[in-house]
Amino acid sequence: MLITIRDIEQGTDEWKELRRGVVTASNFKYIVTSTGDPVSPSPRKKYMDKLFDEIISGKVIDGFKSDHMKRGNEQEPQACRDYEFIQGVDVEHVTIFLDENKKIGYSPDGLIGENGLVEIKTALPHIQRDRLLNGWSPAEHKQQTQGGLYVSERSWIDRVSYCPNMDPVIERFYRDEKFIKKLAIESKVFTDELEELVSEFKI
């Protein structure tokens, strides 16, 4: 049964605690490739070690946040308002979706109606220019977008590329059930392995 938490603001310490030791959609890229195949052992182990450390220590381990990531957080509210205006929709904000065992989670940028999601990515001007001219690879962020649909049990997601003073790129993706099936299998293998490690070493 899907768990939906709505009353905690994303980015706060309380939100981070909800995600501690939990596999999240933004990190599915450390479990499967954009084709749904298992990733190489090195990034997979590094991610598992991070979650293992969080569970054993009881402390959230914050990753490195680049200037670009910080800028993205600052620009996201305006990007969301522009998206609402262009699409003629209202975006609902929630804290996180969790599976019934609280092992897998997804914090969406927003919900659209009963079936939709929006995921906003900010871009530097030259990257936005290239996306407008040449398109935006469907494989980019696929693990996160399809993972968001998997966890939230929703039908579609709008992937938005935003840069101030430029047109946005808005692309809609529907559930890729073949990919989601592979993701579900590999994420369960991952969480089962993590649980076994914790059981073995935690006193």
Written description of the protein model:
This protein is an alpha+beta fold and 203 residues long. It has a single domain, classed as Lambda Exonuclease, Chain A, CATH 3.90.320.10. It contains 6 helices and 9 strands, in the order βαβααβββββααββα. The strands form 2 sheets. Strands 3-6-7-8-9 form a 5-stranded mixed beta sheet. It has a 4-stranded mixed beta sheet with strand order 1-4-5-2, with helices on both faces.
Summary keywords:
alpha+beta; Lambda Exonuclease, Chain A; 5-stranded mixed sheet; 4-stranded mixed sheet; 6 helices
Q: What is the CATH class name?
A: Alpha Beta
Uncertain segments are none
| SSE series | EHEHHEEEEEHHEEH
Q: How does CATH name the architecture?
A: Alpha-Beta Complex
Count, helices: 6
Strand composition percent: 15-25%
| Total count of strands | 9
The tally of domains stands at 1
Topology:
Blueprint (H helix, E strand, L loop, with lengths): L2 E3 L7 H7 L3 E2 L16 H17 L9 H21 L3 E2 L3 E3 L5 E3 L3 E3 L3 E7 L2 H10 L7 H11 L3 E7 L6 E6 L2 H25 L2
Parallel strand pairs: 2-5, 7-8
Antiparallel strand pairs: 1-4, 3-6, 4-5, 6-7, 8-9
